[in-house]
Structures are given as structure tokens and as C-alpha cells.
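Intended use. Records like the one below are meant for learning the mapping from a protein sequence to its folded structure. Do not use them to infer anything beyond what is encoded.
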Amino acid sequence: MAAIVRRQLALQFPSLSCAITSLSRNGVRTPAWRSQPNRTSTSPFNGRGFRTSLASYEKKYTKDHEWIELSDDKTQVMLCQGTIGITHYAASALGDVVYVELPTLDLEVSAGDSIGAVESVKSASDIMTPVTGKIIATNEKLEEKPGTINKGPEDEGWIARIEIGDAKEVESLMNLDDYRKHTEE
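Structure written out for the chain above:
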């Protein structure tokens, strides 16, 4: 049954690598290194698990200096989540961040929508979502300590987590090399 579900998912969502997880006989996600075929077993589940590549977890960037990174925590087969934030480049251009307006939970957004704002001693900037989806979490630490963005904008200074609606939007974003070229222009 699990093989049929995985096959249907692969056909329906060929570009959504995070929609398909490796499943073991009991439906629990299995690490790729453990889902290799066991040549001595006659189990119908040998070697049939789909694997997600590490490239599918690559951080992607927008021209507006936001980033999104897909989550490795896929507890539901059809759920794909990502974490959104601003880049090091944007954080250094802003200067010392003094206020962060976080998005509302359960907010339905389209790619390019404003989901909040970052204010610094120099200027203010809207935070745009790189993909379509629903906001499922915010980094409430930023309300008390907005300077966290300056210390680690692509780490502990993340802005929000989103349930991604269209994986093709993630694929169309820039990888790190393309983003670096973009910032050098």
C-alpha cells in the first residue's frame, strides 16, 4: 500500500521532493542509508523507499534578499515546510535592527507578499515571502531581541516558518552562487 501511495505522489508531484519520504514497513520515515535493499530478506519493502537528496534542502534566495530553507522535518507525507529570513547582505545594509514586525500565524500568502517589516537605525524594509503558502510559526525571540537578526540573519534570526503551497516556486529561486553573483552586480 505504501509503495502505491509513494508512486502516486511521485507522479502527481514530481518536483516536490519533500512530499515523498522514505517509508519503512510500519510507515515510519527511514534514513536513506538504512533503506538499502537487504539481499537476504524477502520483504516486499526492500529497496522501494524514495529518498530525498541533500540538494533538496539547499537554501534558496530572492532578488529582494530573503532566503528560504526547506525543513528536514517531514512528519506528514504531504506537508512541505520552509524557514524564511533575510540574508546577511540585507542585514548588513540595514544596520542595527531595532524592531521586527512578525507575520500573523495562519496567514495565507502568495509569493512576493509582504509578511512583516524590519526597522533599523538607518531605514525600514518590508519582509517579502519567497513562496506561496501559510505562515505556521514566527520567531518570537525577535520581538524581545530584534538585534538577533544582526548576529545571525540566516540562522537564529529567522523570521517565519511557512507551509509551502507550490514547490515549483522554490525551484525557481536562486541558489547561493547565483545570489552571490546578484549581490556583486
